Amino acid sequence: MASAQNFEALLIGNGDQNGSTFYMLSLRSDLGFGKPVGVTGNERNASDGLRLRFDLARSTYDTNYNNVPGTGTGDTYRLLLSYGIPVDESTTVTLTGGVSYHSLTVRPVTANSPDDSSETAEFISVDLEHSPSNFGTLQALAEHDGAGADYLSASYLFNASPSLRVGPTANYIVQGDYSRTAFGLSAVYQLGDQFEIKGTAAKAEQTVGKGPAVDVDYFEVQLRTVF
What does each of the 227 residues of the chain score in pLDDT, given as a tens digit? Predict the structure, then answer.
């Protein structure tokens, strides 16, 4: 077992063929009352106990109000507390709650483009992680952001080698009249006890309002470090 770590940083970036992008930095610090995050072999183990978490995210997408090409930009800030509950030696349920702030702007401004907006609301999530020895990692996540999007995901990563995990993933996101369902393949490569990189390629179907479903491809990269 690698030495326990008290601080975790996660950087996420993804984009699709339509020009939409999403970036997020998530910082998480153990506050005690449990086992800090650690690594056993190439299997990630969720932290037990209380953690403080701060998220900073930005998303962009192309717009065409009044036939004028533009860009919509959404910024999100979250201040959260998480509590990891060990169910058994290989299973942890993490409950997270706190405050989320979301702002949206569209530039350039046209006659029909939406006004700048901002909102502060609740954020709650439930994360289940199951990672017994020689099994890999099974994870399911449900998030509700009252100022942003609701998100569901599930993945299974099996141990392809001592430092590589590979497996299927699926996710669903909905925000206002926008929704997207995606299925893909993820690979996680561990670089020692403190760093890992994850890549995901997925096929997705998205809809806006009552418009037709549109097929899109997207790719995501995650960088994670613990120390």
Answer: 344 568 999 999 999 888 889 999 999 999 876 565 554 444 556 788 899 999 999 999 888 889 999 999 999 999 999 999 999 989 999 999 999 999 999 999 999 988 999 999 999 999 999 998 888 899 999 999 999 999 999 999 999 998 999 999 999 999 887 889 999 999 999 998 889 999 999 999 988 777 788 899 999 999 999 98
Rounded Cα–Cα distance for residues 149 and 114 (Å)? 18
What is the Cα 60 distance to its own chain's centre?
16
Alpha carbons 207 and 226: distance in angstroms, whole number? 37
Q: Which of 146, 131, 150 is nearest to 190 (CA)?
A: 131
Q: Report in angstroms the alpha-carbon separations of 175 from 2, 68, 125, 135.
A: 39, 24, 16, 35
Specify the CATH number for 7-226; select among 3.40.190.10, 3.40.50.620, 2.40.160.40, 2.60.40.10: 2.40.160.40
Per-domain boundaries in the chain: 7-226
Pairwise CA distance, residues 215 & 227, whole Å: 40
Count of positions (residues) in the chain? 227
